Amino acid sequence: MKTTKKIALATAAALAFAGISTSAHAAPLTVTVAGATNTTTSAAPATVAVPVSNVIDSSNTVALAATADTATVINFVASGVKLVSALNTTLAPVSVASGVSSISVTSTGVAATVYAYTTSTSVGSVTITNGAYSTIVYIKGTAGVAANVAVAVPSATAVGTIPTISVSATDVFGNPVASEAVSVTLIGATFSDASITKTLTTSAVTSAAGVTPVTVLGSATGTLATAVAGTVTVVATDASIAATATGLPTAVKSAIATFSVSDLGSQITALNAQVASLNAQVASLTAQLAAANAATAKATSDAATAATAAAASLAAEKAAHAADLASAKSASDAATTALTVEKAAHLADTAALQAKYDALVKAYNVKAKKYKFATTK
Q: Closest Cα to residue 171, out of 244, 118, 234, 122?
C-alpha cells in the first residue's frame, strides 16, 4: 500500500514538473504585421509610404508586434529599413534620422511593438528572433511625391542625326516617381514635331529586356528633329514640385543641360587639310634631313682625306728628318774619327819632337860637360 502511494506521489510530481516546463516554453514567438499574422515574402512584402514629411508616425511605419515568453529577449534586426521603438509625439519628435538597425526588447508576456520604416522602394527586411524561434518580415516603400527633376542629354552628336533627351522625376529620397508631368523647353533645336516646348510624362513601369519601346520607371524620353550644327540647351521644369520638409534635402524644381552638334563633314575636311599640311612639313623636314646627312657625309669624307694627306705629309717629313739625322750622325762620326786620327798624329809628332829635343839636350849636356859650360834641362 505504501509502495503504491509512493508511486502515485512520484507520478504526480513528475506531471507537475512537466506542466511547469511546458508552461515556461509553451509560447513560441508570434509576430503580427500591422495587426495581422506575418505572411510577407520578398515577392509580396508589406508596403508603406516613405516618410516625406520627416515625421515618423503611423502613416509611414509598419507596426511589428512580437509576443514571446516572459523575461526572454526579442531581437529585431533590420536590413534596408530602419526601426524605432516609439512614434513621433510633440514632446518626443521622431524623424527619418532617428531610426536604428536593431532593437532588443525583454518580453513582459505581452506583445512588444517596434515600428519599421523605409526611405527606399527596394525590398528590405526585419528579422525577429527569440531564442530558437525566428521569423522575417519583408517591407517595401512606395515613392512619395516628386521633389526632384533631372535631364539627360547626349554627350555630343553629329549633324544629320536624330538626338533624344530624357527627363526623370524622383522623390526626396531619390526614388523614381511615375506619371509626373515635366515641361521641357529646347533652345537651339526643336522636337520632332517642330515644337520647342513639350510636356513629357514619366513612365509608370520599366520595360522588360527586349521590349520596345524601352521605358524606365520615373523617366520619359523625347525625340528631337534632325540635328544641325550648334549648341542645344534643354531646360526641364516641374512646377508642381513643392518645398520639402524641414531636415530633408532641398527640392530641385528645374534642371538644365547642354550638348553640342558637330558638323563631322567639315571637321573631316579640316582634319584632312591638317594632315596634308603635316605631310608637307614632314616631306620638307625629310629633305632637310637628307641635305644635312649629305653635308655631314661630305664633311666627314673631306676630313678623312685631309687627315690622310696630313698623315702622309707628316710621315714624309718624319722620314726626311730621319735621313737628315742619319746623314748628320754619319758626318759627325766621320769628323770624330778624323779628329781622333789627327789627334793621334799630333800626339805622335809631339812625341817625336820631344824625343828629338831630349836627344839634343842630352848631346848639349855632353858637350857642356866636355867643354865646361852650363848644362840645360
A: 244
